[in-house]
Design brief:
single chain, alpha/beta, 38% helix, elongated, Rossmann fold, seven-stranded mixed sheet, seven-stranded parallel sheet
């Protein structure tokens, strides 16, 4: 969402971000000198939040309201009750078949943006008209030139010849954290001795043992680019995935992924070209793919080079241009406006 707002601002638009107080998004928006205001959002159907959003839509003269998650979707819908405009755009990021489609996905939503074909298909299966859905892959920033990888081996006193396998993102069940021990155990004793596991996300707990593999839980890392660049392999054992931007980020830095072939991951990773994909929930297959990358440095290098190229197809600039096209499509029947006059309210 932040990348989209920055891209729109560069294209002479005026994005206004509404987000919870003290959220990382709000802090980063202020650092980027984007217009951003706090709105406390305590629940999906938070009437007080909806009234606050409604007031900001009115005051700003917003031409588009774009909701970026389930809670903001519900709040935006309430805020627009009794108003036929502005159009409401909703981004959906998860590949699960949505429920209560009449209530949450009614005619007041002008367009849905699905972050992958997998998300699109789940929405269609739920009964949402395909003509109301457009696929716009989430984009990532290109890594800045001259990124210096963080030297985890030196910091954590790990052997110089160890292979660092990283897990990046939310440390939750749906992201496959419970499967890590089984994956690590399946590597075999000799491979486990040469492997180290680094957890980047969640709470910092320090030294950990993951299925017999020495590891470290670094928690949330603010300067994530050099942290990920310091990995040799990315493990992504998510059970379901809308697209997988953490995978794209790693690929852009030349870190080849091993992942279950679920959801939008299959749209990002080309098996044995830019990473390794294995059958969903097949822990043994994941362990074997991980072992291949740990044992085979030339394979890691080959996949890393292709991964960088593949990640370039998921750019923030492309995401911005395609989202802008959705906005213009909705506004094409309205009064003539210059591009600089189009105000977008982004609710997260």
């Amino acid at each position: 969402m932040l990348l989209l707002a920055e891209g729109l601002a560069l294209r002479a638009h005026e994005p206004l971000i509404l987000a919870p107080p003290d959220s990382p998004l709000l802090r980063r928006a202020h650092l980027a000198e984007l217009a951003a205001e706090p709105v406390q959002m305590r629940a999906d159907w938070d009437l007080r939040a909806a009234l606050a959003v409604r007031a900001r839509i009115r005051e700003s003269g917003a031409d588009i309201v774009h909701a970026h998650d389930a809670r903001s979707h519900a709040i935006a819908r309430i805020s627009l009750i009794g108003r036929s405009s502005p159009p409401l755009v909703v981004t959906r990021r998860v590949p699960f078949i949505p429920k209560a489609t009449r209530l949450k996905y009614g005619s007041r939503v002008s367009r849905f943006i699905a972050v992958s074909v997998a998300v699109n298909n789940a929405m269609v299966e739920a009964g949402i008209d395909q003509r109301r859905i457009l696929v716009v892959h989430s984009g990532v920033e290109s890594p800045p030139a001259g990124v210096v990888p963080r030297n985890w081996r030196s910091e954590l006193d790990w052997p110089a010849d160890s292979v660092i396998c990283g897990v990046v993102g939310a440390m939750t069940a749906e992201k496959g954290i419970a499967e890590l021990a089984g994956i690590a155990a399946g590597l075999g004793p000799d491979v486990r001795d040469r492997t180290r596991i680094l957890l980047l996300g969640g709470d910092r707990t320090g030294v950990v043992d993951v299925g017999g593999v020495a590891g470290f839980s670094a928690g949330f890392v603010e300067d994530i680019i050099p942290a990920v660049a310091g990995l040799d392999v990315l493990w992504h054992p998510a059970r379901a995935e809308g697209l997988g931007t953490s995978v794209i980020d790693a690929m852009a830095l030349g870190v080849p992924p091993v992942a279950f072939g679920v959801g939008g991951i299959t749209e990002v990773v080309e098996d044995d070209v830019s990473g390794l994909l294995v059958q969903a929930e097949n822990i043994a297959a994941f362990s074997e793919a991980a072992r291949r990358l740990i044992d085979d440095a030339p394979l890691r290098q080959r996949l890393a080079e292709s991964a960088r190229v593949r990640a370039g197809m998921f750019s923030a600039a492309a995401m911005t241009q395609q989202t802008e096209a959705v906005y213009y499509q909705l506004l094409s029947g309205s009064e003539n406006r210059s591009s600089a006059s189009i105000m977008r309210s982004h609710v997260d």
